[in-house]
Amino acid sequence: MIDEFLEYLQYEKNYSPHTVLSYRNDLLQFCEFLKAPDGKIVPQKVTATDIQQWVLSLMESETSARTLSRKLSTLKSFWRFLLYYGHVDKNPTTKIILPKTKKPLPAFFKQKEMESVLDDTFLPDDFERVRDHLIIKMFYMTGIRLSELINIKDKDVDVDAGKLKVLGKRNKERIIPLSLDFCKEIENYIRIRNESIELLDDNLFLRKNGKKLYPKLVYNMVHNMMSDFSSLQKRSPHVLRHSFATSMLNNGADINAVKELLGHSSLAATQVYTHTSFEELYNIYKQAHPRAK
Which CATH code of 3.90.1170.50, 1.10.1740.10, 1.10.443.10, 3.40.640.10 fits the domain covering 111-288? Predict the structure, then answer.
């Protein structure tokens, strides 16, 4: 049953391998709690009490509220699948309710910090330095995800039209506009890259050995490079994505446009940035309005 459900998530719902693995781990953990060998549970025999006891055991082991919610969401999805395909005639997860968890506001780099990074003119024509600087700018100028950046091909960048084609979650394609100046920087990087290394891959961003980048390398590069310009404890590619969204909204962009640029499937995922933007506007108001001080 579990394998069938995971195949459904992977091939029917187009979930990422990472997400499918998380579902698998949650379900196997539940099976282990029920003492079901090799993850072979009998769904018809599972009761709401069984699930409640599992949740209580997780709470006793100090599992965070956010993780609890995710694990329960996995069970709910699993039983909805079983119910839809007629494997069971009742859903024991409907009686299980967890309190809503408060999502923290996303961290972001301030606009002045980003300007300091991107306007740094002391850049030698060294392949890796030019590449790293362009990667930082790509994250901030487009708001793309780390996985999306790593998989950009040369053919996905149309410098003449000022467009970038990105393949996002669940193989959803979107087009992101690029400024004329940014396109010139991309062309300059490609020239230096082609002169400096032997190309062993058709990706835009490559390592010095000509092969594709990997997530940890990009994460470390962003973390180290941003440490010279920001005191934020978390300095990651995803914070640059947050910074893109926050800067767009702070400067008057329509939230639906930001949603499309980020590749969000629902507006709710984008609305979290409006809280950050309001906070920024409130600080400006306090500083600028004579009666607000």
Answer: 1.10.443.10
Q: 259 an active-site residue? A: no
What are the 10-residue block averages of pLDDT along the chain, 293 residues in total? 91 90 93 81 88 87 84 93 91 78 76 86 79 96 96 96 92 93 95 94 95 96 92 91 90 89 89 68 67 61
What pTM, to 2 d.p., does this model score? 0.63
Is 238 annotated as catalytic? Answer: yes
Please pick, among 70, 169, 211, 212, the residue that the annotation labels catalytic: 169
Sign of CA dihedral 211, 212, 217, 223: positive
Catalytic-role residue among 71, 137, 193, 241: 241
Candidate list 145, 235, 242, 259, residue with the active-site label: 145
**264 tagged catalytic:** yes
- Indicate if 273 belongs to the active site: yes
CB 193 within 8 A of CB 284: no
Q: How many helices (H) and strands (E) does the chain have?
A: 12, 3
